[in-house]
Amino acid sequence: MRTNDAQMLVLCALADGPLHGYAINAAIEKLSGERLGPGSLYGALARLESKALIEPLEGEGRQRPMRLTAEGHEVLEREVRSMAEVAGRMFEAAVPDRIGYLDRLAGTDQARSYKQVMLDALAVRPGHTALDLGCGPGTDLAVLAEAVTPSGTVIGIDADPEMAARARERTADLPVVDVRIADAQALPLADASVDRARTDRTLQHVADPAQVLAEARRVLRPGGRLVMGEPDWDSLAIDHPDPEISHAYTRHITERIVRNGVIGRQLPRLATEAGFAVPAVVPVTSVFRDTRSADRILGFQRNAERAAAAGYLSEEATGRFLDHLAEGTFFAAVTLYVVVAEVAEAGAQPSS
C-alpha cells in the first residue's frame, strides 16, 4: 500500500475500527514509524470525508471519532489487493533451485568483484595443485584450470552428488580438473599434497567450519595458501523508515536461515587457531540500489514470510517491509570478507 500517502495511511489506521484524530495519528506512527503533521492529518481527514470514504460518529470537535464507510473499506481492500499483485510481480516467492541460484549469483557484478579479489589473492601458478572446497556446479573450476595450465591439477570437492555431477559435465573438456564427491570436513587427500585451496561461501553452511580449516591445513604444502570468501550476514543493512523492522529481518537471516551467519568475521580467528598465518583480510561490500536485482539474491518475500512465521516480524510489519521495498527508494548492503591464510614455509621460524 502507498504508506507515503496521507489519505491511505488514515484509511489503514481506521481499518480496525473508529478512532479520533489523536488516536489515528498514533496508529499511523505505529504503521509508518512517524506521525503526520497536523495540517497533513486533518487535510487528509477532510478530503476522505468529502469523498465519503470516512464518516464521523457522535463527538465534539476534533475528538469526534471517524470510521470507514462501506466505500472506504472497498477502496482500502482494492489498494491492498493491488499492492499484493505488485509485490507478487516484484518479489520472487518460490525458492530457486540451488544450481540455478548459484549460477545467477555468479553472474552478478557483486560476485564477479569479490571472486576477482579471491583469485588475485590465491596467486595460482602453472603446475600448482589447486583445491576448490565446495565447488558447487563448477562455477570457478575453469578459471583455476586456466591458471594452473596443463602442467597443474584442479581438484573440486563437493558433498552434493548433484552439484558434483554438474561440475563434471561443465569441465568434461578440461583434463586437469578432477571433481570428487567428498566431505570438506574429511578430505580424501594426502597430507601436504595441495599448493592452493579456496572456499567460496561454503563455510557458512558446513556443520564444523573449524574442522574444514584443520583439513585444509593438513593437505596444504609448506608455503601453501588458503583463500576464503565468506559473508557476514549480520552486516546486512536494508534501509526502511522503521529500522527495527529491517534489523529483525537481518536477525532472522543470521540466526535462522544461515547455519553460520557471522562466519565472515570469525575466519581470521578460526584460521589462526587452525595453525595458519593470516596476512590479509579484505572486506568486499556489495551495494544494491535496485530492488529486483537484490531480491534475486536475498529473496525478500520468502524470507520475510519466514521471519513472520518464526516470530521475528509481525504480519503487519512484514507487509510494511515489503511495501517499502516495492515502492520506496531502495538501498541494501552486505559485507563479505576475503581472508588469506598461509602455511609457513618449511624451516621458517614463527614470527615473534
TrEMBL record:
Q: Where is the Transcription regulator PadR N-terminal domain?
A: 10-77
Any one Pfam family here would be: PadR
Q: Which UniProt keywords apply?
A: Methyltransferase, Transferase
Please state every residue range assigned to the domain named Methyltransferase type: 131-228
CDD domains hit by this protein = AdoMet_MTases
Q: Which domain of life is it from?
A: Bacteria
Give GO BP annotations, semicolon-separated: methylation
From the Swiss-Prot or TrEMBL record, what is one GO molecular function term? methyltransferase activity
Q: What is this protein called?
A: Methyltransferase domain-containing protein
